[in-house]
Write a structure and sequence with these properties.
By secondary structure, this protein is α+β, with helices and mostly antiparallel strands. The chain is 40% helix and 25% strand. The chain has 19 helices and 25 strands.
Amino acid sequence: MGPQFPISRIMHSGMLLQCAPDTTIAQAAARMADQAVSSILVVEGGRVAGIWTEHDALAVDFSDSAILQQPVASVMSAPVATLPHSMEIGAAAVEFREQGRRHFLVVDDEDCPIGILSQTDMALNQGLEPYLRLREVKAVIPRPAVVVDGTMPVSAVARQMHSQHTDAVVVKCDKGLGILTERDIVRFIARHVGNSPASQLATQPLLSVHETEPLIHARDLLLEKHIRHLAVTGSNGDVIGLIGYHDMLSGAERMYLEDLRTALEQRDQALARSRRTLQLAERVIESSFEGIMVTDANVTIEFVNPAFTQLTGYSPEEVIGKTPEILSSGRHDADFYQRMWHSLTTDGYWRGEIWNRRKTGELYLELLTITAITNDDGETTHYAGLFTDITQHRRNEEQIRQLAYYDALTGVPNRRLLEDRLEHAIRHAHRKEMLLAVMFMDLDHFKQVNDTLGHATGDELLLQFTHRVQGCLREDDTLARLGGDEFIVLLPEMNHVDDVHHVARRLLGIASQPYHVGGEQVTVGASIGVSLYPEDGTSANELMQAADIAMYRAKREGRNLYCLFHPEPAVTA
């Protein structure tokens, strides 16, 4: 039931609440109330002599306030029950149940106290969620609720709680029901308020949960309200019981034993099926399309399946007894393998893409998953690797990406990729308060080339033009083709507008140089429209529209020149 880890992980540690044997009962109660703890250790001469708990407080006859001035040693529980810090939480649960205790002192290997373990700690850390979600509240009600009249003196209520072995009672108050708990009794002792009626000490209103609610709801309500008890109501709304963490723990243990009994009954059937399952697993491995390789803890290959041979070209006889280094491509450095082993060591698995080499020497890209196989003690005994060849898949992805973001003829970015880069460049220019330029380029008389010399010649001209433009741009500049003979040049991080003029003149110059295509010498020019950020627009759409307008102005004013979006005289090459 739940995770099996040592109780040292869930105990209350640090500075344990302590007092001397001659500390009065009232003083001990006050310290417990201030610290909101359920127990205090009584220490004499550096040795734990006893423990006084909230439950012990019920046995104190404090109707006479003078009794509260007696030493706590007279009412403490001794000797103190202890548990070793290394005990697993499941074994501790058995001790709580068999000894009927609510607290244990946790000691180290030298029998020195290092913490306190309570039933509440167990209930909150036993991993009970699966049981609490499936069971209803009524399954763990220990007994009908003890209900007392609010006029009853607190001392009498405490005696009744002690005699009936209950840690809380329902109190009938003038304005409804309340609850009185062991912790309330301790606070009562600490305040020396005399033998007051129970209604003055009871907590109101009484928080409740319906008997058909799942236990997980009750547990969450206890945590949310920072309380340890809830009333349980029946179908008619009457209180039929009280539940707390202790009841959930005990109920869950019963449920666990029932599940364990069922599991033992199913074990024989599972063992009978195991041989058939093993045979099926072997057939699955043999027929798997994924390559499978198993090594020992020293990474020596012990097993490979047929798919391994098909993918790598190596037969089992050629690799068993060797290490996976036989497949190494040489493409990955030492840091790559260090990261791989770090993941295997810390997480128990590694998954990623890796280049390996077939027996023929051919490189291939594989998607590889390596899992560390451990024994019952958590020690790694084997490593299992499963891989598939994704070389062609990656090629297909690259081809799809190329088609989606790049022009099919020239290989430069298309409109979609251009817009992404332009949006990024605008954000960058805004942060750095720098100039950004967009140039809309259109080849003059390109249609005439297509009509007279053919589209193949036109395509060759576009390729030569693209190569020329790329040759005079910076590394961070972008040349994109919108379609036909329309191109965009993106110039980020320009220092001055004069730099933009310089680039535009260079582009006009290279565009007008003769092209040698299809055995012909062809001369065309270019018309360029320029827009600037932020003067001409603050979005990609605004800048491209402004550059387009400026380009058409250049065409109207004679072609083979460039125009800025602002109404300025056209500038020739």
